[in-house]
Write a structure and sequence with these properties.
It contains nine helices and five strands. The protein has 200 residues and is an alpha/beta fold. It folds into two domains: 119 residues, Rossmann fold; 69 residues, no CATH class. Helix 3 runs antiparallel to helix 5. The longest helix has 24 residues. The protein is globular, with a radius of gyration of 18 Å.
């Protein structure tokens, strides 16, 4: 089985491409969703994050819900704090992905979808790396429409991510999601290339 990592900056459409992969019967691990679930339910993570950030990180009512604004304030503009939080969460997500991937045995491919594939070191968990790309203005417009936020807020998010050109340069394959080039032929070409890698 070949594991394929799919990434891309905000508004590029990596989740859209992943959804098309699911329609082809290829299992997809959504690392963002899984990370949120693991962070909310894993007692070791909750203990270590509380020790790092403080007792107000989780709702004092005892419901176990993380107060995201507390975490956001802790990591905003502080790379050291962000690195400490990631050091707690990322290893557990990687372990969760490995267990999930083991359950997909018998499939030709499985997919790891991650916005921070390279930044988190998750690229080391996959055999083949794919970056979904789109023109900057189109990305901004998509995010403004989807999230109902201002252009300035979208640009700030983009500026806080790894440069899109750098992501593309690190990938083994780039899918252009510009609303002009058809996606299906590009996905066909990607899977054909992966099959050749699988059969080597």
């Amino acid at each position: 089985m070949l594991t394929i990592g799919i990434t891309g900056g905000i508004g590029c459409g990596k989740s859209y491409v992943s959804a098309k992969m699911r329609l082809r019967g290829i299992p997809v691990y959504d690392s963002d969703t899984r990370a949120k679930l693991i962070t909310a339910t894993n007692p070791v993570i909750k203990m270590e994050l509380t020790r790092l950030v403080g007792p107000m990180l989780y709702c004092p009512c005892g419901c176990g819900v993380m107060q995201k604004e507390v975490l956001a304030k802790f990591i905003f503009g502080n790379p050291d704090n962000l690195a400490k939080v990631n050091a707690i969460i990322h290893p557990r997500v990687k372990e969760d992905f490995r267990q999930w991937a083991d359950e997909q045995k018998g499939k030709d491919f499985c997919i790891l979808e991650s916005a921070i594939l390279f930044e988190s070191g998750f690229d080391g968990e996959v055999d083949f790396k794919v970056c979904v790309d789109a023109p900057l203005e189109l990305r901004i417009r998509r995010c403004m429409e989807r999230d109902k936020i201002t252009r300035e807020a979208v640009v700030e998010r983009i500026n806080n991510q790894m440069d899109q050109a750098e992501k593309c340069s690190k990938a083994d394959f780039v899918i252009v999601n510009d609303g002009v080039q058809a996606l299906e032929p590009q996905i066909d070409a990607l899977l054909e290339k992966c099959k050749k890698t699988l059969n080597k």
